[in-house]
Amino acid sequence: MRDIALAAGVSIGTVSRALKNQRGLSDETRRQVREIAHRLGYDHDRLRRRQARRLVFLIHRHHDERPAHPFYAEVLQGAEQVCRERGLVLALLSAGPADPLRDWLRMHEPDLLVAAGHFEPELVALLRRLELPLALVDDRQGDCRAVHADDADGGRQATRHLLALGRRRIAFLGGPPAHHSIRERERGHRRALFEAGLPADPALGVSAPAGLDTRRGAEAAMRELLRLRERPDAVFAYNDAAAIAAMRVCLAAGLRVPQDIAFVGFDDIADAAAAPVPLTTVRVDKTELGRLGVELALDSAQAPRLPQHIVLPVQLVCRASTDPETGATSGSSDAAAQSPLPPPTPRSARTR
């Protein structure tokens, strides 16, 4: 560090703050110190092996709206559990591309970062430039360490369930196409149609209009589907909040659920079982997502043991929105009540 300070013309304390990404320095000084450290062969990984104390849990502003909150609130609970067990101080930040995220993070001086939900590639690139252990939750970008649900398999299970009930005009109601999870859910949906020998009707694939929140976007997309000459007999929505909003549009139009049109959501938030017609959905272990996100970040701060990329299994939960007999026979409108989610034995693979 003395050699770096001499070469950069700064104090040893400045070198220390620059390498630890602490506040109190200009971007130019920080960049200059890091470049000289790299040129002189400084082993920055030695800093990472010190005991981590502070973790910042990031959530994108577009996930901070009411319909998305139940999902990420449970993810955060899982993260908090690990932080308590490991003696970490957790700070929650909600940020978007227009926010001074770099400045906010310097105020917290984190040792670890966990980003939950979809972030723009530019924001992920900014986080990576901080050279702190980083894990993505419910997303996947490049070679970042990441954990998410098996969204493609969930989409396949949802659509196969509808096909098994005799539905043939199955619409996919999608959301922001940039989100990895949503793209994977649609991919699983299309795969199930292909395996059943059914062509994917382009008219049955709709997305919520940009600029609207989850509820209003799903309502607009559902109205578009109802204007078709031959309307769908089932809808697989990219998440539960969208499915419930679309269901309300159909009920208001005088359609019966599921007799006229069936619905399947994704995530199994608490509102799914309490929907106007209890919602069939794909259950995600949200708490485990949060736990594994923190474990991945901790792991990359040490000698890595965990895989680069972890995929959690999902489970179809059948309720009355696809089969009226389901709610009546379960007693709690939840056919999965006696079939709990299997223990988290994540299927993992190295990122290519």
Descriptive notes:
It is a single chain. The protein has 352 residues and is an alpha/beta fold. Helix content is 42%, strand content 16%. The chain contains 14 helices and 13 strands. A seven-stranded mixed sheet has the order 2-1-3-4-5-11-13, sandwiched between helices. Helix 7 links the parallel strand 3 and strand 4. Helix 2 crosses helix 3. The protein is elongated, with a radius of gyration of 23 Å. The two termini are 36 Å apart.
Write the layout of secondary structure elements.
Layout: H1 2-8, H2 12-19, H3 27-39, H4 45-48, E1 54-60, H5 69-86, E2 89-95, H6 101-108, E3 112-116, H7 121-129, E4 134-137, E5 145-149, H8 151-164, E6 170-174, H9 180-195, E7 205-207, H10 214-226, E8 234-237, H11 240-252, E9 262-264, H12 270-273, E10 281-283, H13 286-300, E11 309-312, E12 315-317, H14 324-330, E13 347-349
What overall form do the CA principal axes indicate?
A: elongated
The string of secondary-structure elements, in order, is HHHHEHEHEHEEHEHEHEHEHEHEEHE
Order of strands across the widest beta sheet? 2-1-3-4-5-11-13
Span from first to last CA? Answer: 36 Å
Contiguous runs where pLDDT drops below 50 for at least 5 residues: 327-352
Q: How large is the count of helical segments? A: 14
User: Average pLDDT, to the nearest integer?
Assistant: 86
Largest sheet: 7 strands, mixed
**Number of extended strands:** 13
- The portion of residues forming beta strands comes to 15-25%
Jot down its keywords.
352 residues, alpha/beta, 4-stranded parallel β-sheet, 14 helices, 42% helix, 16% strand, elongated
